[in-house]
Amino acid sequence: MKPFHAFVLVVGFTASAHAWAVGPSFDCDKAQSFSERLICVNPDLAEKELAFVQAYYSLRQQVGDAGWSGLKREILDFERDSLVQCHIPDSGTLPDDMTPLTSCLADAYTKQRSTWVAHLRGPALEEASRSPAQNVALQQDLQRLGLLPASARTDGVYGAATRAAVVAWQQARAVAVTGFIGDSDAAVLERQVATDRKTTPTSDVAPGGQELNSAEATPSDHIAADLKAEALAYDARDGDADALATLKNQANTGIPSGQYGLVSIGTYFGPLALDCKLN
Questions:
Q1: Is the pLDDT of residue 240 over 80?
Q2: CB atoms within 10 A of CB 255
Q3: What pLDDT was estimated at residue 75?
Q4: pLDDT (tens digit, 9 = 90+) per residue, 95-139?
Q5: Could you tell me the residue range of the domain that residue 26 belongs to?
């Protein structure tokens, strides 16, 4: 088993291989491991993986830098133990009957997610309790308002750029600045975007970067929108603050943000790659 490699196992899958609405938290077109491939061919598992990751990021925001170290150790332990318990290999061909593997992994995601959600309070709990599809839609709302770079991948994972967008929106609305999208903020944000759409022509980015009118865009078009963006390299130990500063500079200069920061300690699975995710 490769060190620090988690559930995301993918090998040469294309967007056509996963046509469901939401999930997983990573790009299946770039998946290379067995577990990534397993997730990418199973819609239910893909959505559970995203819900798991969303809860992780809500807790990551709640504990802040002071609690990040312990949370990273927890996710590493979870990744290692789950792969062993579910008998997930590093590589190989997916079996004809994947049910035992997908069921075990889905249960592991659900249980760990429940553990993290139990620690959440207030708007953090409200955010994590929302469906993955709703969190994707709210992220897209921030993008439509120009608070999230057009190049950002709206996959429902609230990384540094999305948190910065939430803070900017809260400051502009003169509401409590939490960095979370609680239920009250979600309702206001949705109404704001709905009002703007009635008064201002909008366009959305389709797969490959092509723009299309909102009336022509399907939900899968919105979620599949994935412009190739410049990746930001930074050290995983102290990269969060540096990456956020770089993102703010890019937002001011019009330079597209990267999808993921490049970590120096190896290839991570889901949430760990997530810890370095910039969108």
A1: no
A2: 15
A3: 92
A4: 999 999 999 999 999 999 999 999 999 999 999 999 999 999 999
A5: 15-275
Instruction: Report the alpha-carbon distance of residue 59 to residue 117 in Å, rounded.
Output: 8
Tell whether 10 is covered by a domain.
Answer: no
| The pLDDT of residue 26 is above 80 | yes
Q: Is residue 6 part of a domain?
A: no
Rounded-to-integer distance, Cα 146 and Cα 251, Å = 10
| Token pair for 94 | 């997916």
Residue 3 lies in a domain: no
Pairing of strands 203-205, 211-213: antiparallel
Whole-number Å distance between alpha carbons of 159 and 140: 14
Domain count across the chain: 1
Mean pLDDT, all residues of the chain: 74
- Cβ atoms within 10 Å, residue 262: 14
Total length of the chain? 279
Whether residue 164 lies inside any domain: the answer is: yes
| Dihedral sign (CA 269, 278, 116, 111) | negative
Whether cis (ω within 30° of 0) applies to the bond prior to 256 is: no
**Contact of 112 with 52, CB cutoff 8 Å:** yes
Q: Are 115 and 82 in contact (CB under 8 A)?
A: no
Q: What is the 8-class DSSP label of residue 263?
A: P
Amino acid, single-letter form, for residue 102: T
